[in-house]
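Record passed on underneath.
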Amino acid sequence: MTQSLSWMRDGDRLALVGELDQDVLNPLWDARVEAMTGVTCIDLSQISRVDTGGLALLVHLISLAKKQGNNVSLTGVNDKVFTLAELYNLPADVLPRQ
């Protein structure tokens, strides 16, 4: 199976589809400013896997949105993402749940 990551905007919602894996993050990283403009919700319900690179990208996207003046929440998050964040001792508010 080929790894992939795609995303689409629906108003203030950014929906991610596929895998948040270090091998497929570059296109979203390159488009991060445009992708996050006006976003208040990141939907991960169609994400099948997240590795440490994906977690780092999520943290960066949320931080970027905050710098743009937006409060962002996550929806459709697998508990494994929060477990990974806990393993890295990230504060609970770094990945805000909806």
Notes: The chain has one domain: 5-89. The mean pLDDT is 93. The chain has four helices and four strands.
